[in-house]
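Changelog note: in this version the structure field was regenerated for every chain. One regenerated record is shown below for reference.
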Amino acid sequence: MADRNYNWDAIREDLKRIGTRNPDFLANMVLVGGAACWYYRLALSKANDADFPIPVYTPDEERVWLSKDLDFMGESSEEIGQLIGQPCPPMGTLLEYAGATLQWIRHHVAQLPG
């Protein structure tokens, strides 16, 4: 597995820009994939719930994730086109939206590292 370093602060800023540009985009999508797991882990750590402890990893282990993509799903290509204000490009085509690089993959959109 390739070690891919992501800037989580930059991903968070991309989400803010997407939400500012079009609140309907985030409201109609479901965040999935490695980034969703990472955000869920952060939420669990803030909750400090004894029933759901966060695993402790070494710094090297922290850098490695099975998926580091910020994926969205929940809309058809037609609905994606309406949300981004242009026809949805063919699957696998990169597009810029609100300063983030996105890729359409079947019924979800993936944000790629910039």
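Spot check on this record: The mean pLDDT is 75. The chain has one domain: 8-112.
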